[in-house]
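=== RUN LOG ===
request id: a7f3
mode: sequence -> structure
chains: 1
length: 305
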Amino acid sequence: MSNDFDDEDISLLEDKPEERETSVIAVKGLESIDPGTPIYRLRLSYSHETFLAIYRDDSLDPDSMVIVPTRYGKDLAQVIGPVRCKHNISDIVWIERSATKEDLDKAQHNRNLADNAFKTCREKINKHQLEMKLVHVHYVLEEPKILFFFTAENRVDFRELVKDLVSVFKTRIELRQIGVRDEARVVSGLGICGRGYCCHAVSDKLKPVSIKMAKDQNLSFNSMKISGPCGRLLCCLSYEHTFYSEQVRKVPQEGVKVSHRSETWTVIEANMITGQVRLNHNDGRTITLSADCFERADNHWRTKP
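=== RESULT ===
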């Protein structure tokens, strides 16, 4: 069976509009900050989302744990390290305090509880025959609340499910629907390159990836080659798009006529990675030149003298 998609089919690999707001955790920013105040990047272990924060007291060591405010209440976060570049203060929060041994012990206890809660919730989902996939369960450290993250193709009426969960756990329950890219960021795994998912290992800031990016990089519209395990277009298409966009302006593309040694040639291949351009003459001759050999003059491509 062929995996080649036409333009209409391949649109299925693009992010759905409802999945493009990818932030699982939103934190309230500051109104002002003194110059020279050290800024740290933190990570929430259960969602693998990162954000910026400042601390009033002593400096913080990488991998240390702190208590910070999140959308769902005060929770545990890991210090990745200090950052030096400028940031919008609206994206920065105060660190409440360093985590104590009691905090860490409680977090470990909560993780054990979350494992059991995951199994219970999945049983309840099956009982109610709901079309949803449970992704992760998290107990908020300083809030009587359990978060259940799930994915679903459509909107899900989970009111009866929530009632069941409340009756079991006797605490506040929140079910949060996330996108498939967020799911990949949370659970992690290995991509087709053999390395950890970009959304988990490289950056948690998920940017929409479009079909145009694949076209600009001259990629085959083969679903197996341009989509990730999440079923959406590969994140690396977005990371590499800027490079290709810049190179396209510097190198003649496939099908373009080029003047070379007073003869007209046609570009049959332009490799942006190797910087090599193959040309074909109408008499059958084929040559390969470096991208540095070309220049654009009077809206036409030619080789440099």
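=== NOTES ===
The longest strand covers residues 73-83.
The chain has eight helices and 15 strands.
=== END ===
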